[in-house]
Amino acid sequence: MSETQTLRQWLLTETPTSRRHAKISAFYKGWLTLRSNTMAMIGLGILVAMLFVAAAAPLLAPYDPFVQDLGNRLAPLGVEGHVFGTDSLGRDILSRLIYGTRITLYIVALVALIAPIVGLLVGTVSGYVGGWTDAILMRITDIFLAFPRLVLALAFVAALGAGIENAVLAISLTAWPPYARISRAETLTIRSSDYISAIKLQGAGALRIITKHIWPLCISSLIVRVTLDMAGIILAAAGLGFLGLGAQPPSPEWGAMISEGRRFILDHWWVATVPGLAIFTVSLAFNLLGDGLRDVLDPKAGE
Amino acid sequence: MALSENNSEGRPIRAPLFHRFGPTVKVILGTLTSIIVTLLGLLLVTFVIGRIMPIDPVLSIVGERASQANYDAVYLQLGLDKPLLVQFLYYLWDVIHLDFGTSLLNARPVAEDIARVFPATLELATIGIFFGIVLGVPLGVLAAVNQGKWIDQIARVVALIGYSMPIFWLGLIGLLIFYGILGWVGGPGRVGIFYVDVVPSVTGMILVDSIIDGNWAVFKDAFSHIILPASLLGYYSLAYISRMTRSFMLEQLSAEYVTTARVKGMSEWNVVWKHAFKNIRVQLITVIALSYAGLLEGSVLTEIIFSWPGIGSYITTALLSADMNAVMGGTVVVGLIFILLNIFSDLLYKIFDPRAK
């Protein structure tokens, strides 16, 4: 019978034959739901395109993003050879935008790794162990949650010194508490379920239970939250760059590019406008995808 | 117990006063403890930031060419020889007395500086939240009532753009269009150069001061300067407020008492505003308090763009010139207000919304 089955039927089966089959099948069904959401697919498309641009930056960029051409500074949009014009040092804005995708992706990827992992650790330990550990960890989480995020990030960067890595650290430090809250809530519901008791009876220790049986179940709600947070992370990073506390010149970071173009905004508007559009497009893409993913992975939280 | 039940008219049954406020004392006590712990945490974090700062506080006071004896004297004076815990207690003591040290830039007490710049931020954020409420709440209600129709889509797009747009960039574009090209609004700053220091500062909020002084020319000028940054901030709170209003309203509109009211033949206007909307008021106020706190924070970047002399500009300027006392003081004040607004909204919710019990 399996010979006549198409791949699609195999993926959509109601009776999976193995664990992997069930996993792949669930994944495929989720993908189908996501695919029917046009907005989410637009978001995904933009992000895939961005990944491609970042990977192929040296091939796509018409110029070196750092090479100055003072004879040709502040050239307007659409000038011969410079689609988006040039900045105050005559550097090609399009090339700088293209290389800037790498920086944005780098920041986003690092924060998206650090913050949820820290949150997951704190949240699951807090939820599983309970008692005083829980009380103390959750107090700390609340304190960080109560902070205005941008101001806290500013203060951290001030203490650590300006730069991309420190900006990442500062943003992560302000971004982890919601993840801790989410994973704690998930852990509390999972902890008391029968299958955890069953594993306990088999002699599994706390470490094994947390890492093998609780973490996997927290992942999907964390992914949704991360995707929805991405836009905020990009905006925060761009804000720090704009204030001169993130990526340092001559780095083609988008926020820093806006900050540089700000001086010429009234006469040469495109220098600041174009990188801003790039930031807007990418964070919009993350928001669209995040909304779609939420509907797929976490239907309860949807509107 | 019977608090959440509704009678046939769809109105919540009111419990006697003492029932409603009996548990309140307990809530308030619990909240007080959490305020104190959170504040201590906030101060601990700023203290630690101040300690890991790569700036020698002694050097920044005595200068690089001071003698060793001078250096040591200031070192002892600042209490840097004491254990960290004792230093933290000193810090607490100072903060409780609103003493944030003196600014390295202008040698004035940081607390005074903050008191001087804060009204500017307050003015900006207050007008911003006003825009957010006046436009955001009706938009959210309309979107919920017309779920899935074009107005709902518009509300969704408005919010999405608000969530995705870098505020400092939108500010720049706003300046370019409305000031640079159209000339409809005043440029950066609080008032035009001819109106600086014309009205005596009573509240520090120039719109209020000019009304008190009866100087309408200043009021008009100040208004033309504040309208753009305030409406930008307002747009951000609008995005959040309208989304939250929409989801609160959807929840109410699907409740049975709404169906009952409709079956009785009550007009749609009364169903929406007199029944459903009444029940989301408390939730709404908490959301508004939260987004007001968010505006105080969001004003940091906006103030830079509009050269607005508020607390955001103050912190950033201090940051770029390594004026640590000013940065820490500003952070503590913003954090404090943020926490208080958070707790206020939480408390409000617990006291006035029986469903939260």
- Give the low-confidence spans of chain A: none
Q: CATH topology of chain A, anyone?
A: MetI-like fold
Overall 3D geometry of chain A?
A: flat
Helix content of chain B: over 70%
CATH architecture of chain A: Orthogonal Bundle
Tell me roughly what share of residues is in helical segments of chain A.
over 70%
Mean pLDDT of chain B: 80
**N-to-C SSE series of chain B?**
HHHHHHHHHHHHHH
What percent strand of chain A? under 5%
What is the CATH top level name of chain A?
Answer: Mainly Alpha
Explain how this protein is built:
With 303 residues, chain A is mainly α. Chain A contains twelve helices and no strands. Chain A has one domain: Orthogonal Bundle (MetI-like fold), CATH 1.10.3720.10. By secondary structure, chain B is an all-alpha fold. Chain B contains 14 helices and no strands. Chain B has helices at residues 17-21, 24-52, 57-62, 68-77, 84-96, 110-145, 150-164, 167-181, 206-213, 216-253, 256-263, 268-305, 311-320, 324-352. At the A-B interface, helix 6, helix 7, helix 10 and helix 12 of A face helix 2, helix 7, helix 8, helix 10 and helix 12 of B.
